[in-house]
Design brief:
Residues 21-354 form the Enoyl-CoA hydratase/isomerase domain. This protein has a single domain (12-362), classed as 2-enoyl-CoA Hydratase, Chain A, domain 1 (Alpha-Beta Complex). Helices cover 43% and strands 10% of the residues. It has helices at 36-50, 78-87, 91-107, 124-127, 158-163, 169-176, 182-187, 200-209, 215-223, 238-245, 250-258, 263-272, 277-290, 295-311, 319-329, 347-352; strands spanning 12-17, 20-25, 57-62, 71-73, 113-117, 120-122, 134-137, 142-144, 193-194. It has a six-stranded mixed beta sheet, with helices on both faces. A hairpin with a 2-residue loop joins strand 1 and strand 2 (20-25). Helix 6 (169-176) runs antiparallel to helix 13. The longest helix has 17 residues, at 91-107. The protein is globular, with a radius of gyration of 20 Å.
Length: 369
């Protein structure tokens, strides 16, 4: 088996051990955030290995940062988004189209796909792990879809996998961007097994150099290290989450939380009040529409929304550009949302994000099944 030529200049590394293709996201200084070249390399590898009968399973992990907490993948490269928009660089369009195609490929991958989700797993990191057949978590795992924090929405199939979480927990995770640990992730259907962090080095060594003649050996290497996850604090709040996040719209959700004296409810209300009012409304609409959609239809919808995020208000006028500016460029953490409050958000403004800029037969994801 030969490894296909890669273009990301070492940001993706690949190796083969027996029947296993092992991928490492190798951009640790950026918490393994995805670049367009990385997305293309991942797609190249997965397509090549899908067609190779010698490869029976694939595993993916994030490169470690010596002396620092682990990170599987912190998401997409948001600084690239900001710079590309300012420069008029069309590669931002390729980024989202190819990323969503990669998400679809992983969800429908015909061979066992194992994601070692140690440390930070956010945004695009969720997109390349949630379709895995085996999602492995540790006590360091920190899962989130934090896009509303930058005036975006939980994309990369987030509508699909969050809508399929129990009750209204998907709305809670989508709107707040709150992070959850391993046990909550497993209870909410966003993870499969728990492996103690001290076992991860041994697991990676086994995958890299142990005997791997069949896919069953790959699965066994994981399963022999599986343990019981620690308690799931948020899962115990599911009834409370359902009560608040099952409300009809964002103003009703906020009012419900504000009326609940519980400290968690008050903190959650305070979190939502920091987010873009417009993008909260768009996100709630997205998740609730996705609940009745296939993954392919959800990804097409998300491709429409993300186009609108950067084009309804061009340049720095968009909520997403303002959110990225405040968080990652100027780092003043004081985004100037427009409108500044939910009172200014109209139904027409929200629905504009769901109008596709493409006819159905010209949609960039038209062929996803």
């Amino acid at each position: 088996m030969t490894i296909p030529a890669l273009q990301s200049e070492g940001q993706i590394t690949a190796e083969v051990n027996g029947c296993l293709g092992l991928i490492t996201l190798n951009r640790p200084q950026a918490l393994n955030a995805l670049s367009l070249a990385m997305i293309r390399d991942l797609t190249t590898l997965l397509n090549a290995w899908a067609a190779d009968p010698a490869i029976q399973a694939v595993a993916i992990l994030g490169a470690a940062r010596p002396g620092k907490a682990p990170a599987f993948c912190a998401g997409g490269d948001i600084r690239f988004f900001h710079a590309a928009v300012l420069a008029g660089d069309d590669s931002i369009e390729a980024f989202f189209t190819e990323e969503y195609r990669l998400n679809h490929l992983i969800h429908h991958y015909a061979k066992p796909f194992v994601a070692l989700m140690d440390g930070i797993v956010m945004g695009g990191g969720m997109g390349i792990s949630q379709g895995s057949k085996m999602r492995v978590l540790t006590e360091h795992s920190k899962l989130a879809m934090p896009e509303t924090n930058i005036g975006l929405f939980p994309d990369v199939g987030g509508g699909h996998f969050l809508a399929n979480c129990p009750g209204r927990s998907g709305e809670w995770l989508a709107l707040t961007g709150d992070a959850i640990g391993a046990a909550d992730a497993i209870e909410l259907g966003l993870g499969d097994v728990f492996v103690p962090a001290q076992q991860m080095a041994g697991l990676v060594d086994a995958l890299r150099s142990g005997e791997m003649p069949t896919a069953e050996h790959v699965v066994a290497a994981v399963m022999q290290r599986v343990d019981v996850a620690p308690p799931a604090p948020h899962f115990e709040r599911l009834a409370q989450i359902d009560r608040h996040f099952g409300q009809a719209d964002v103003p009703a959700i906020l009012a419900s939380l504000a009326d609940d004296p519980d400290a968690w409810a008050q903190q959650t209300c305070a979190t939502l009040l920091k987010r873009s009012p417009l993008m909260l409304a768009v996100t709630l609409e997205q998740v609730r529409r996705a609940r009745s959609m296939s993954l392919a239809d959800d990804l097409r919808m998300e491709r429409d929304i993300v186009y609108r995020c950067f084009h309804l208000r061009p340049g720095t006028a968009s909520e997403t550009m303002e959110g990225i500016r405040a968080l990652a460029v100027d780092k003043d953490h004081t985004p100037r949302w427009n409108p500044a409050s939910l009172d200014g958000v109209t139904r027409e403004q929200v629905l504009a994000f769901f109008e596709s800029p493409w006819p159905a037969n010209q949609h960039p994801l038209k062929d996803l099944a």
